[in-house]
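We emphasize that the prediction below concerns an isolated chain of 123 residues; any contacts that depend on oligomerization or on bound cofactors are therefore not represented. The input was used exactly as deposited, without trimming of termini.
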Amino acid sequence: MKKQLHSTTKEKGFILPSVLFLTTIVLLYFSSSLITYKHDIQITHNMVEQVKSQSLFQMAYARYKKDYLIQNIIEENVTYSFPIGNVIVNTTSTDKIIQLEFIIQTDNDFPYTVTKLSNSLSN
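Result of the prediction step, given as a token string:
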């Protein structure tokens, strides 16, 4: 006759620890999945705001270039309102170089600042 293991023939004290271990593993998996999901949502939100900010910068620069730079006019402070946010353009100029600072605020209150150097003669 074969010898049988004591832990498999008598279930006293064998099932509960294995169930607790399995439950712990499952709960750890679900909690880490929830934390990862929440983190991914935050990253996606930040990426959407970044795209909005870049779009606002491109729109404001194109409009400022069309309104002022092509005509060699330097306007100190200009505010543009777009459907996805607002842009304030602050200008400082030296001899031939113009420094444009774009202070961007999206519709979800995401602040962003861009500085661009431009040559006043060849835009």
